Amino acid sequence: MNIATIIGPTSRRFGVFLAAGLVLLSAAGLRAAIPADPSARTMKELNEKEAAFTLRMYLDAYYQCGDKHPAWNEKVRAFLEVMARHDTNDINEPLLSELKEMVRELYLLGCEDPIVTTLWIRVFDPSGRLPFPRQMKHNLYGQLVDRGYPAYIRMQAARRLYLDQPRLNKSTHYLDSMIDALHEFLEQDVFGPDERDVQIVKFIDLVKYLPGEYGQKALLALKASPNVDEVVYETVAGEYYHWLAWEARGPGGISYVSDEGWSQYSKLREQARQHLTKAWELDPALPYAADSMVSICYGQPEARIWFERCVGACFDYLPAYRNYLSGIQPGWGGSKEKMYAFGLECMQTGRYDTLAPYQLIATLVDISTTDMGGADYFFWRQPGVYENARRVLETYAAGPDFQDQQAFYLTMLLGFAMRTDHWQDARAAFDKLEGKYDPAAMKRVGLKAEEIAGPVLAFSGPDGGSKWQGVVLKNRRNYRQAEAIFRHALAQAKPGPVARYLKDVLQRTRWQRDYHNGDWVRLDADADLAGWRVRKGVWTSDEDGSLIGLSHSDPAIIWCNLDVGEHVEVKATFTFEDSPGGDAVCGIALGEFSISEWKSLWSSVEIRQADEKVGMGFQGCDHESVRRGQFQARNTLHISKRGRRVKVWLNDSIVYGDDEIANYEPTRVVNIGIVCGWSDSSWKIRASDIQIRKLDLTAGTAKSTDW
After folding, report:
1. Residues 6 or more apart from 162 whose CB is under 8 A from it?
2. Which has fewest Cβ within 10 Å: 140, 325, 353, 516?
3. Could you tell me which of 310, 219, 231 has the C-alpha nearest to residue 278?
């Protein structure tokens, strides 16, 4: 379960602002209530079962084969207990913090037990991308095998090692070992009579994402085992064929799916439907098959029937809520209004002992990222929407059941208030948080910790109204009046976050004014990086206004948040300051960063040091074609962009003549970014002389570049 999407505590307080909501609900044509059988199970019960089973497997393995020692036995047990709870969630920030602290204690005590070490590597490298931990896990797996650790532990470790391999170069060696361990595990009767839920969850996790041959081997092993119920097999098989169907369809929108892809998708989806329907008929009290059927029926009325069957078995089975919401998005024939109406249904349940009402918030976050142009908070500003969101978040934050997640809800409330300009509400949440913002919540509402205090304090203070008038004028392109307001406010402000914010917005206002005048605008960075926003990596500035970026593993990217329109010229000079492998990548990004940092559409033109070529691509520059350029010690990249068509020069030599950015359909460019790509080693790049100019296409000709 993705706790960053669906977290929240409890309260019995219930009250809503329904005037606008009921209109939207009626217009959407959805049912008025989600069935809330008080006798239905909840996710808490299912998660507790799964955590208890996982802990049993961990402890049995440790006490049978582990490096036991009185100095750390109790701490290992405590670590495994928290790890088992963590395994029931994809992301749980409080548990991760607790686990990291436990790992440090065990490391200082000298505990190097293979299973403990394997698990703590997962804590620090959950994605499995870092090469050093990957090699460590390979060595640790050898120890698990040599020392005869139980089949469950070896089976899970082999699966993770397979999945952690690079996507295009996966060895099946681990899968052979996993299938052998699976057969051994199935000979053991380790599941209790009331653990069919756990069987289904564990075997779905095991089989999903396996290539066809090995997926079939695993399914055959399950079907042949006397220790696996028929309903367990049918559910796992249905889920597996459903995944295969999506793999056959391929990524991307409907227009990018081939005829063969649709054919295979339909065939495999029908196989999945048969297995899942049979599983539900065998035991309607289990939610898993009904949940999978919700996603199989995307865009069809049948999806609602399966959703209600699922929540009838487990009221707050959150994957079903997420799947149903996905199926009523605009891409599946739904609409934002239908999505919001469903969110209101979730709120109306009043079940603050579960996460069902929180799905209104998850829905609004989804609505803000539905369009392919970046974060869109306009819907949040419609009558009643913010008030409903505030009531849900306040109720959770004040509730007694999940007090360890109070910071999450308050941070979400802070973000909603900021995005909808409710500055007094934002100030109240800001004061309660005392700077302890929840990282997962900040991602959901597109905030960075360093970007919060300035505007909240500026606009909630006694003269906040006048400052806000400057923002209104800036948005109306009355740049000189806005500049005068910000300059006056900055002169009155004391050193601190308000002054830094005003300095930032003043700089961006000046740049925006000069840009719309048609001048070349230098985007020089000062010591505070005023006008720039760091999104990834480490960025500093030099005295000459250059930006210096450092990336490691993840890319480094910094944006200048300017509305430059669809037609723009950009140029910058790049120097590879430190590239141990001689394989650095850096360049210019054009696009929008969204609520999930830089999830939305953006393209980039990048310089590749290793082969001295220039590449152009979409969302991180996954190049299908690159072109050789005239490289020098300092390389000036010059881009002239007209809609989707782009000209690129490297050191005044043309590289792309009039090319189209594939799969890129922007409405406008609102950000200019500098990007330093990712690698297993650290890179340090310098970007200097960064300039932009507006392309004037009046009378069909560009002002500064011949098209």
Report:
1. 170, 171, 172, 174, 175, 178
2. 516
3. 231
- According to DSSP, residue 493 is labeled P
Tokens, residue 48: 């507790």
Q: Are 458 and 418 in contact (CB under 8 A)?
A: no
Q: Max CA-CA distance within the chain? A: 82
Per DSSP, what are the bridge partners of residue 588?
A: 605, 674
* β-pair partners for 655: none
* Residues 6+ away with beta carbon under 8 Å from 324: 294, 303, 304, 307, 342
List beta partners, residue 177.
Answer: none
- Whole-angstrom distance, CA of residue 120 vs CA of residue 663: 39
* Residue whose pair of structure tokens reads 């999104």 in the numeric block: 535
Cα dihedral sign for 608, 613, 619, 623?
negative
- Alpha carbon 540 to its chain centroid, in Å, reads 26
pLDDT tens figures, 66-91? 999 999 999 999 999 999 998 887 55
Q: What is the pLDDT of residue 566?
A: 80
Rounded Cα distance between 122 and 58, Å, is 15
Rounded Cα distance between 170 and 164, Å, is 9
The C-alpha atoms of residue 183 and residue 175 are separated, in whole angstroms, by 12
Structure confidence at residue 528 (pLDDT):
93
Rounded CA separation 94/704 (Å): 53
Lookup: tokens for 183: 């057969």
Distances in Å between the Cα of 707 and the Cα atoms of 256, 654, 656 are 29, 13, 12
Token duo for residue 468? 């806000």
Say how many residues make up the chain.
707
Q: What is the DSSP string of 275-340?
A: HHHHHHHH-TT-SHHHHHHHHHTTTSTHHHHHHHHHHHHBTT-HHHHHHHHHHTSGGGT--HHHHH
Residues pairing with 616 in the sheet: 605
- Round to whole Å and give the CA distance between 573 and 690: 7
Model confidence at 601: pLDDT above 60 = no
Question: Quick one: which H or E segment has residue 626?
Answer: strand 626-628
Joined tokens for residue 665: 């359909």
Please tell me whether residue 575 adopts helix, strand or coil conformation.
strand
CB atoms closer than 10 angstroms to residue 244? 22
Sheet-wide strand order for 626-628: 532-536, 556-560, 671-676, 585-591, 602-608, 613-618, 626-628
**pLDDT for 682 beyond 80:** no
The answer regarding whether domain 229-327 maps to CATH 2.60.40 reads no
Strand pairing category for 585-591 and 567-578:
unpaired
Beta bridge partners of 675: 557, 587
- Which two structure tokens, joined as six digits, stand for 326? 């996905």
Spatial CA neighbour of 204 closest among 251, 153, 268, 159: 159
Architecture of the domain delimited by 532-700? Sandwich (2.60)
User: What tokens appear for 181 in the block?
Assistant: 């361990």
Percent of the chain surpassing pLDDT 70: 83
Predicted TM-score of the model (pTM)? 0.82
Task: Please state, as a whole number, how many other Cβ atoms lie within 10 Å of the Cβ of residue 253.
Answer: 10
d(CA 444, CA 416): 10
Bridge partners (DSSP) of residue 259 are none
Would you call 554 helix, strand, or coil by DSSP? Answer: strand
For residue 86, give the nearest of 125, 119, 42, 63 by alpha carbon.
119
